[in-house]
Design a protein that fits this description.
With 122 residues, the protein is of the alpha+beta class. It has three helices and six strands, in the order αβαββββαβ. The protein has a domain of 81 residues: Alpha-Beta Plaits (2-Layer Sandwich), CATH 3.30.70. Strands 2-5-1-6 form a four-stranded antiparallel sheet, with helices on one face. A two-stranded antiparallel sheet has the order 3-4. The longest helix has 17 residues. This is YCII-related domain-containing protein. Keywords: Signal. It comes from Luteimonas cucumeris.
């Protein structure tokens, strides 16, 4: 019973940034890569890492309808979805903010933080 209570208290947090936020001088890219990978390794070692990565901006999105029709491009009214994403599972928003700050420091840009709604069936 205690284990179940602990699991349900955890939430998944999306930490992300748009590509335009990455304004990094050319000579710092190697350090950004090293530092950002180090933070991800720390999250993995801490057991909080779920997944992460960046949107492949060379492959355009497609919009798929319920009948299977495919149209090139996303929603025309929505801002483009690009940049990098990390999903961590953490017990509190405060811990999520602390990890977002570590990622922001490593990536040299601010991070957006969002929490996924809990769905027991997902």
């Amino acid at each position: 019973m205690c284990l179940h209570a602990k699991v349900s208290a955890m939430a998944k947090y999306l930490i992300s940034f748009p590509s335009a936020a990455m304004v990094v001088p050319d000579d710092e890219w190697e350090a950004v890569g090293r530092d950002s990978h180090a933070v991800i390794e720390e999250a993995k070692a801490a057991g909080v890492y779920v997944f992460g990565g960046g949107i492949d901006e060379d492959t355009p999105p497609v919009l798929v309808s319920a009948d299977g029709t495919v149209a090139v491009g996303g929603y025309p009214w929505a801002p483009p979805l690009d940049g990098g994403f990390t999903v961590l599972e953490l017990p509190s928003r405060e811990e999520a903010i602390a990890w977002a700050a570590r990622i922001a420091n490593a990536c040299r840009c601010n991070q957006e933080l969002r929490v996924f709604q809990f769905d027991p069936q997902s």
